Each structure stands twice: as C-alpha cells, then as structure tokens.
Amino acid sequence: MSQFRSVQTPQTHQSLIQRLPKVTGHDLAHWLARIEDGPGLLRVPERVNWLRDEYNLPHCYAAALVHESDMRRRAIRV
Predict the structure, then answer these.
(1) What is the spatial distance between Cα 2 and Cα 17, in angstroms, rounded to a whole number?
(2) Chain segment 24-67, per-residue pLDDT in tens
(3) Confidence of residue 78 (pLDDT cuts 50, 70, 90)
(4) Pair 35, 51: CB distance under 8 Å
(5) Helix (H, G, I), strand (E, B) or coil at 59
(6) In 10 A of CB 50, how many CB atoms?
(7) CA distance 29 to 6
(8) Prediction pTM value
C-alpha cells in the first residue's frame, strides 16, 4: 500500500479528476498512460514532481493523478 496520505477529500479528488480535460486539454486516460510510460519512479512525491516538471501541471492535479493511478493499480491486483 502507498504511504501517500492525500490531503484531498474524496470529493476534492473526484472534482480534480473530472476537471482534468478542461484544465489540461487531455482526458484521464491520456494522463494515466503518461504515468504508466513514465520513468518508473516508485515514490509518490517523485511521481508528482515528475508530472509537475515534465508537463507543467499544478501540484494538486499531479497529486490527484498519481493517487488515481495508484488506486486503479491496487484495484487490478485485488
């Protein structure tokens, strides 16, 4: 399990994910693919910083994307 403790409420997280296409111009599938094809960083802060630096994403959106990616990866494993 990730040691990432989101400061976002589930409602805030969902709102950020829903606003991704409008804010970034790309849908969730696009961003999840970027994370999957990325440099394979293991730690949450490293992946958040990579998204921020590589794609100029605001921190809250980068953190929400990493969290969403982790939740989906855990759901597949179960």
Answers:
(1) 19
(2) 999 999 999 999 999 989 999 999 999 999 999 999 999 999 99
(3) low
(4) yes
(5) helix
(6) 18
(7) 21
(8) 0.85
